[in-house]
TrEMBL record:
Record field: transmembrane: 25-45, 106-127
Species of provenance: Timema californicum
Superkingdom field: Eukaryota
UniProt keywords, alphabetically: Chloride, Ion transport, Membrane, Transmembrane, Transmembrane helix, Transport
Entries under PANTHER family matching the protein: CHLORIDE CHANNEL PROTEIN (PTHR45711:SF6)
Protein name as it appears in the record: (California timema) hypothetical protein
Subcellular compartments: Membrane
GO MF terms, alphabetically ordered: voltage-gated chloride channel activity
Keyword Aminoacyl-tRNA synthetase carried by entry: no
């Protein structure tokens, strides 16, 4: 029996060899693609959360899409006292005030609170309206799915999109949570 199997393998065509290689590597290719896409989504989440967290403090008027660190890279100044650079404007400077004093401090504080509330409320509203399964870390539910239960819609595209946007908003609002647990759910959605 074993001899016939070996002789048959010698007679396989190139097409059969390609099919066999595809069967052997298709699982690994799928894992590779999921890993790459998950890494890309994690990068977008990290960059977006960093930008939105800095948005609570001020803005880069030359390029609003840059966070504080990236805005100050383009500056020709060699030292930055207390992380301040002339390229980055605090919200009090945007409104025509200086950086120092009680008035600018109160303005900056109010903008910080307003942005944090807007980010947190927007994250909660998106989850509540579009993807209720996107709430929480998702790890207990993933464990439940792995044990054999079916939760319909839990790994859908809307859950992926809203969870990704929601985690950016929630982290940048300053809520006490991390991105690691939700990334498990996001990776499973992919």
């Amino acid at each position: 029996m074993h001899h016939r199997h070996i002789v048959k393998k010698r007679q396989d065509s190139v097409c059969d060899l390609i099919k066999g290689a595809h069967d052997a590597w298709s699982g690994w290719v799928c894992v590779l693609l999921v890993g790459l896409f998950t890494g890309a989504v994690a990068g977008v989440i990290d960059i977006g959360a960093s930008w939105m967290a800095d948005l609570k403090f001020g803005i880069c008027p030359q390029a609003f899409w840059l966070n504080r660190e990236q805005c100050c890279w383009s500056s020709n100044e060699t030292t930055f006292d207390d992380g301040n650079c002339s390229q980055w404007w605090t919200w009090s400077e945007v409104l025509g005030q200086s950086r120092e004093g009680v008035g600018p401090y109160i303005i900056s504080y109010l903008f910080y609170i307003v942005w944090a509330l807007v980010f947190a409320a927007l994250a909660a509203a998106l989850v509540r309206m579009f993807a209720p399964y996107a709430c929480g870390s998702g790890i207990p539910e993933i464990k439940t799915i792995l044990s054999g239960f079916i939760i319909r819609g839990y790994l859908g595209k809307w859950t992926l999109i809203i969870k990704s946007v929601g985690i950016m908003l929630a982290v940048s609002s300053g809520l006490s949570l991390g991105k690691e647990g939700p990334m498990v759910h996001i990776a499973c959605c992919i």
